[in-house]
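P.,

For your records, the input lines for the assembly:
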Amino acid sequence: MSETRYTKDHEYIRVEGDVGTVGITDFAQKQLGDVVFVELPQAGKAVAKGAEAAVVESVKAASEVYAPVSGEVVDVNSAIEGQPGLVNEDPSGKGWFLKLKITNKAELADLMDEAAYNSFVSSCS
Amino acid sequence: MLNNQGRPTTPKDTGSAAHKTFTGNRGLQMEEALLFESGRLDVTGVDLDEPAPFVSRLGALERHDEIGLPGLSEPETMRHYVRLSQKNYAIDSGLYPLGSCTMKHNPRLNESMARLPGFADIHPLQPQSTVQGALALIEELAGWLMTLTNMEAVAMSPKAGAHGEYCGMAAIKAAIAAKGEGALRKVVLVPESAHGTNPATAAAIGFEVRSVPAGADGNVHPDAVRALMGPDVAAIMLTNPNTCGLFEREIVEIAQILHDGGGYFYCDGANFNAIVGKVRPGDLGIDAMHINLHKTFSTPHGGGGPGAGPVVLSSRLAPFAPVPFIKRDGDTFALVEDASGTQALGRLTAFHGQMGMFVRALSYILSHGADGLKQASEDAVLNANYVRARLADLMSLPFGNRPCMHEVLFDDTWLKDTGVTTLDFAKAMIDEGYHPMTMYFPLVVHGAMLIEPTESESLASLELFIMTLRDLAMSALRGETKRFEGAPFYAPRNRLDETRAARSPVLRWTKPAPIVEAKAAAE
Amino acid sequence: MRYLPLSEDDRAGMLARIGVSHVDELFADVPTHLLLKEPLDLPRRKGELDVARQLGRMAARNVAASSVPFFVGAGAYKHHVPATVDHLVQRSEFLTSYTPYQPEISQGTLQYLFEFQTQVALLTGMDVANASMYDGSTGTAEAVLMAHRVTRRKKAVLSGGLHPHYAEVVRTQSQLASDEVVTLDPDVGATEDILAQIDDTTSCVVVQTPDFFGNPRDLTAIAEKCHANGALLIAVFTEVISLAALKSPGAMGADIVVGEGQSIGNSLNFGGPYVGLFATRTKYVRQMPGRLCGETLDAEGRRGFVLTLSTREQHIRRDKATSNICTNSGLCALAFTIHMTLLGEAGLKRLARINHAHAVQLSGLLTGVKGVEVLNPTFFNEFTIRVPGKAVDVVEKLAAKGVLGGVPVSRVLPGKGLDDLIIVANTEVNTDEDRASFVAALKEVV
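Structure tokens returned:
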């Protein structure tokens, strides 16, 4: 049973057990435009909540991807390095960025659930 | 004998019969191959005689391999580059309303002055006794810049605006270090509306950037600065007039806050052209400001450079100016090139700065005089406000219909639900024969359109520009998206695939693989 | 005023249409007591004739390189630039256009930048080059920063053969950024042991070839040691024409090649504007500073060019950009690329041979002057000589005799005990008569 939570910086984290899959939301990919480059961390790297975990670039914009919660990077999606367009085509599926082994699941409580995020997004646009 | 071969002299209306041409050319719009496709390794457009036999002193490192550089004869070279030039928009061909970039007329007197052998054909390291006129020119320009800004000193060597920022911020860092506060003051305040060069410069010098929010009126407010000011703050970098085209009306108080807190005030002088002869930055409390000679004093932009970015400095920062600088003793000028034994922050470039740009800028300044410079600023502001006044009923002004400086900023609120974006609107301007305005900058405004007409436009030119934008705007508001979404239709190229360029970068020509050549030949 | 098209009537009508009565109402945000009411106490406007006279008088006080036997180099060189070059760079569409941010109407600038990048990559023996830096010295400093980003280390080692001003620019920058720099002692004879300085804390080694004193340097062993230690080799040149005569830095294993392009297409200009050339390996391209032009297609499938990989740059990345550079040396790059096109491979290599042949001739003549010693076993178009007495005095005395005979090393490297050395350059512009005058004058002053 997975549960997805969202940040105000438009990252999502889909939690299954101790591991969360992190990516950017559909709203975020639309704001950026065609993604042309991603920079992913190395597996094994420890990241604190809110710290820069990856970088995503389109032609005219660049953005950090922040860790929604603290954890250790256990896997990265190297497919999006070769095909950055996957981030646009399928942000919540094939366009995921990295998997985090979550250090403190209590931090998830600070994040928005889907309903809260959707209303946050409608206030952004 | 009479010439009795008549021919039709009244054209028929065949307007819709345009066809694809064999060459890809469209009349005067020529396609042009890459030099690497048309040139050959054994062709040269320069006649040089082979030297008489001699014994090489190159040693073991002599080059024997092929470099791969094709050449063209002189007539082919001329045609190649003339054809390329014809694919460019330029100030000389039309109004170039690129906000923040100041695309004003580039007088050709300045070009001819810069090419005088006494300026263009002198070496930066030849004996100083043989370049006294050059040093005198730099001093004369420096004098004008200091008087126009009411500042104590000026560092002439920075090569462009961003390099000037670097120089000014480095002087601030040196001054802070001299006071023993180097470990303490690490933060530079930068408004959200700043040019990207400001945070990039601060970071390059090892400062931490703290963002200052802009007020709802487009100005930076003293309270916002006061809230961020502290013993860790080294400086603020503020653009004035700012990138929204507005004069920072509380700038004096902001300067006071910085000074009271032990910090410095760096001003990005990119928009100095609005206020030359109207108000002096030194009177506003500024400690350092770069002057883009290629904006305010009209040295040509040249497709992206070269520029020049002298930095005026207050008395608090003057001792830290980099080498080289000039010392005057009566009619004799001496270059100080060695930083040792001075408080100079070091050296920023190999030689003395952009001499070629100094000559052009001084030629521009002498031509205008104090009265002409003031008039130029007033006309630049007048032209921008005229555009504002004539478009305010159609296009949206994010900070209300209040006077602007030399450029006017619209946002895309007025385009909401039309299906036309700022980008589309800008590209449609190309079809009408205009270079687009600056768009999507400053970042504090959504879908920004920043229009700077400059003082070089006549009233007739402005009227046509305004009528064109009104026509486009009404068309957008009527929902005529076809005119916009595919634009430009009449440029040498229509929209280019920038995603493709960035995802698989091709940054140089490479020889096609043989199999590809063979295939191309077969086709 | 001849540059201002508005008439007084125009102005009055426009103010009325805006709804103000005086232009100063448009300056209402300026604190009233600071708004200047009258023009500053400075000269008033002048016609072309007066300006040309005033500036002409200043120009006449300088000794132009073409007017005397001229042997000054050490980072900037006097070469002949074909008339076509200056004509073309003054085309309105090149001279008065902005950075090509609107590619549909900037294909001229973009295509020549693409050609320029290719020429620079070929000359240096590298994969890719950018669209130019301000000059060789600032380019070198940028290369050091780039190496720090690539290696995530902070220590640069500078050869004692690096142009002292370039080294100073690197040191100034490094001090501001709290990076470490090791500068080796001035290395007149190219004998320094730079290999001993390289270890696993080294970010980059910066070596100039031909070096400041004119010695061509083999970079192969330095490159190998750098790579074995995870460091980058930055190869620097100040005389770009030397690349046609000497093994390319890329072939010797350099990771970044940077230098001054002034010699091709550009005048001496008393030090600027010049054009910095900057090339590297494909794998490092995202860490490069400066603009890059790339090939793509337009909506109809036609080839076209755009500025690309812009997310490295300040206008997008802001405080995380690879550099703060914005304006570069576009028009000087154009002059470079046109001159290079005129030369082509055949012309460039011949030009290099002429330069070298002239320098060989001059070194032979100078060796014959009593008390004068040519120090370089090998060189391209400049070398270092030792003179009896102070080099500064010798150069001044030569100037008094109408010969500009080189750069005293002590002017650029003061306080190093190198007071009797002069760097002498010789290019295609120098004639047999020039060399004879130089030698005759030198005989009189030493």
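Two observations worth noting. Chain B has 15 helices and twelve strands. Residues 428 and 487 of chain B are 5 Å apart (CA to CA).

Regards
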